[in-house]
Specification:
11% of the residues lie in helices and 68% in strands. It contains 1 helix and 8 strands; from the N terminus they run αββββββββ. It has an 8-stranded antiparallel beta barrel. A hairpin with a 4-residue loop joins strand 7 and strand 8. It is elongated.
Length: 187
């Protein structure tokens, strides 16, 4: 089942990117980075970072954005046990930019798929021997992203982006509020 999910994700991302590149408005348009607050299900909020690229348009208002995001969260529980979760997500989003009268405001909504490489670790002291013990588990999960935001130019080739995303991922669904910058290529 997991292998089928991986193949489906990569196939959908490849088809979406291929569709964008087949259009006249294709190729690397801009790259960007973002930082934000990630609130994973069942854990405290933490800092997340990400990089992304605009690889072209499927239609004039629909753009394709491959991405990679990372967050980690550690919590102490049960009298000294430490629990750590890490998520590295690689995926692709499609964003629809709403037509508005003001060219300095570019609102968008979108969705996408991603592969989440999740690692969970627990470290604790064995109450009988007093020795430290640890356990970890890793999994690869398919996730669905839904969100939106606003981009606005702050320079000739630079945009400021603010966005909110919900990632539906087995065991660690999360809500993210983030801000970032993009740098455009070409004239």
């Amino acid at each position: 089942m997991r292998r089928d999910a991986l193949l489906l994700t990569f196939a959908l991302c490849a088809m979406t990117c291929q569709s964008a590149l087949a259009q006249n408005n294709s190729g690397l348009k801009n790259i960007g980075f973002a930082v934000g607050i990630v609130s994973p299900e069942g854990l405290d909020a933490t800092l997340g970072v990400g990089v992304f690229a605009d690889v072209g348009a499927i239609t004039p208002n629909v753009r394709v954005e491959p991405r990679m995001d990372f967050w980690t969260q550690s919590e102490t529980m049960f009298g000294g046990s430490e629990f750590t979760v890490r998520d590295i997500a690689i995926g692709c989003r499609v964003k629809y930019y709403f037509p508005v009268a003001n060219p300095k405001l570019m609102p968008f909504a979108g969705g996408g798929l991603g592969l989440h490489f999740i690692n969970a670790e627990v470290e604790m002291i064995d109450p009988f021997s007093g020795q430290p013990i640890s356990a970890d588990d890793s999994s690869t999960e398919l996730g669905l992203d839904i969100g939106g935001g606003l981009a606005t130019p702050i320079g000739v080739r630079t945009n400021f982006v603010t966005e909110a995303w919900f990632g539906a991922v087995s065991d660690f669904s999360h809500f993210t509020l983030r801000v970032g910058l993009t740098h455009a290529f070409g004239s």
